[in-house]
Design goal:
Length: about 160
């Protein structure tokens, strides 16, 4: 089930996007899904490319990270240290696709080169997942989907 797709623009001077998992931002009950990230321009460490902590999905869902501060939203201890994981920092050509679990820790460095980096991201969820307002109570979908309903029942 298509959950979300969005265009992500990162411009020179924007800060590091800290290490985080996507699942905690979604009003669903379990991380059954896949995230696709597709750079629309050449992208690498100097151009804000996504990097990944290999194997970090095995940690399961962790505390939600505030994407502005890099600290957890609830002040909980984060059971993740990027230095303890092998990192994967690919160089992307336009149109490359990387697919990853909603509980894989990933980050994006600051833009060190002029210009911007555009990427498209889309998220698909398993039809077994259910809407769970408690997982992301401030998500706008909580106003329009029934708590506990299958994700196949949207509006």
């Amino acid at each position: 089930v298509l959950f979300q797709d969005l265009l992500l623009i990162k411009r020179q001077g924007q800060r590091v996007f800290p290490w985080h998992q996507d699942f905690g931002f979604w009003p669903i009950d379990r991380p059954l899904g896949v995230v696709f990230w597709v750079p629309l321009q050449a992208s690498d460490g100097d151009r804000g490319a996504l990097r990944f902590a290999r194997g970090s999905h095995r940690l399961g869902p962790q505390a939600v990270v505030d994407l502005h501060t890099g600290r957890t939203q609830q002040g909980d201890e984060l059971a993740f240290d990027a230095d303890a994981w092998p990192l994967y920092s690919p160089t992307y050509a336009p149109g490359d696709v990387v697919a990853f679990s909603p509980v894989t820790f990933h980050a994006s460095p600051a833009m060190a080169r002029p210009g911007e980096r555009a990427a498209w991201s889309c998220i698909f969820l398993s039809p077994e997942a259910r809407w769970s307002h408690a997982n992301a109570p401030n998500h706008p979908l909580c106003k329009v989907v029934a708590d506990g309903a299958p994700v196949t029942e949207v509006f």
